[in-house]
Amino acid sequence: MPVVTSHEAVDVVVVGSGASGAAATWRLAKSGFKVVCLEQGPWVDHSKHPATKANWEELTRTSWAYHPNIRQGLADYSVNDDASAIKVLMFNAVGGSTIHWTAHVPRFHPSDFRVRTLDGVADDWPITYWDLEPFYDENDVMMGCSGISGDPANPDRSPRQMPPLPLGPDGDRMAKAFDRLGWHWWPSDSHVNSQPYRGRLACNNCGPVGWGCSRMAKASTDVTYLPEAVEFGAEVRAESTVYSVVTGGDGRVTGVNYFDAEGHAQWQPANAVILACNGIGTPRMMLHSASESHPAGLANSSGLVGKNLMFHVYAGASGVFPKNEPAYKGPIANIIMSQQFYETDPARGFVRGYTFQMGRSTGPASTAVGGVPWGAGHHQDFIERFGNMSGLGVIGEDLPLETNRVTLDPDRRDRFGIPAPLVEYRLDENSKRLLAHGVRQARTALLEAGATRVIETAQSVNAGWHLMGTARMGEDPGRSVVDGNCQAHDADNLFVIDGSAFVTGGGVNPTPTIQAVALRAADYICRERSDLKR
Amino acid sequence: MPTKQGALTDSDRRNMRVVMDRLIPPVDDLPGAGTMGLLDEIERIASEHDRYRKSLVRFLDALTMDMSVEAEGGFLALSGEQQDEAIREIEESLSKEFANVLEVVYISYYSRPEVHARIGWRTGPLQPLGFTLPPFDESILDTVRKREPFWRQAPD
Lengths: 534, 156
Description:
The structure holds 2 protein chains of 2 kinds.
Chain A (H helix, E strand, L loop, with lengths): L4 E2 L3 E6 L3 H12 L4 E4 L17 H5 L7 H4 L43 H5 L9 H15 L24 H14 L4 E2 L37 H7 L3 E3 L3 E7 L5 E7 L5 E11 L2 H11 L24 E8 L15 E3 L15 E7 L3 H6 L8 H8 L3 E8 L8 E9 L5 E6 L4 H21 L3 E5 L36 E3 L14 H18 L6
Parallel strand pairs in A: 1-8, 2-3, 2-8, 3-5, 8-16
Antiparallel strand pairs in A: 4-10, 6-7, 7-8, 9-12, 9-15, 10-11, 11-12, 13-14
Helix pairs in contact in A: 1-7, 1-12, 5-12, 6-11
Chain B lengths: L9 H14 L15 H10 L1 H16 L1 H5 L8 H14 L1 H15 L3 H7 L37
């Protein structure tokens, strides 16, 4: 790649400005590191999110779709997931997929870090829940958490910054059904403001929280971490697409090559490089950065870069309820959750477990697209469903398999010539049994809540929001890519801090854990790696 | 048959309007989706988004190339039941493309203010109004709070 411009060297280049990259940028800049954060996407204008447009439902399925191949934005790279049982979902902008997330933020459980010891499957993490706990708390302060402590399914946690979001009549109904069944439930922890917080407004319950928030009531890292990081001296370079991480003869990284917004090649030297491009983008970048000192791909002496890809397996059921107060008021998936079936119970026929995440009704077009039949029965079916549906999503732990992986597509490339990620993924029998159990229990709960009809989804295909495991951490360099501080075994000035570093995926939305891992890694750099500061 | 670029011919438009009326028939005082005049909107969306454009082209190709339909004098000459049958055959043989066509028809229909008025949906953008909900009431936790912590201990 012929370089046009060479920039002044910095201490750390962070590649990616999403959940993890922004958190690390903030923490390092706060400690006096000279940091540049490179982001392939643009800054997002929050006043232009879909909810501000009359055709918002069209936008959520087109230019704001979750799948990059549908969205086809300038910053999006094509993903070849044709052969994957789960499709890859992500967003590329300053703030990354936190622009697009629902901000439902449960934490991993202590058991999630010890699955080998407790259940004899996969591997233990080299760190524990308790190692991450202070960073979960720090992250909650930065993002702002609505919720309430005291959940019996989880270790007690510090007081939340704001009270829970309103449950709404649909949330109340579901909670009482769980109570009658004797099952656990708890109000969702959400990085959505129930009150004004740090200059951001409170949520006004418009609904489609997963497609940006014009009030900035939903935390995305472009409005939480990055403004403070910039105040501390960090530079965020948007529309900067990293082409490769460059290494020297000694195997250490020396900086990154990237293309700027005009397509001009740039060189950014740095003492350290932090990769935060998500569980698909990071292994893609590492495999594309093969060099003489890293012939199998950057930091890939273990051969595990790109392997052990984990999504969460999703299934669920939706209940149609008798007409009542419309159930489309409020954030679509930040209501309540149940972890009745989270921990392993051998009697269920599978190991590990899942969370129920409640979802609610949405707008008319989305309701229709969600399965209303065409033809003579259309209007009757529609009117029964519209505003009258509640769902229970089953978010299940999918255990790592080396055959579930990301490699470089031999044919497909992005506009800069970088190969597309080729994703291969299948569900194992444990996951299938887990999902089947979850759907049965979801049906039970919805009927208990008063549903007159239950519509089941055995396994969701468009569910690859959570991208994990492709550069996993561990103590053994032969069986992992980075150590417990996210430092690469093969290059002591390279760090991987996104979901790629996960050993296992738990049965919950992973973003707060991703951010806690990133903050902990940045804290390590600040405390132990002063050699990286000029 | 549409051109490869996706521009619909007059014949395609006539067919598509009837298809749309079969997909979303008239109800109360509202006409079906085709008679409502949504085709321009569907063509706009299709022209802006590849997956809809390609799917619409394939769907209309299939509709005009169905020999049994042609033998009856074309799609428009079929009875309503026969038209439904022809559509169902395409739904089975081109399920992905049909799903995209149905999606764009649904999106267009359920974006119309007159449809919103019938179903009781506030038309226009969701913001800045949003919706009002009563604040969280902690008393709903009374039962679940009685439960002892049950998360699984893990060794260090």
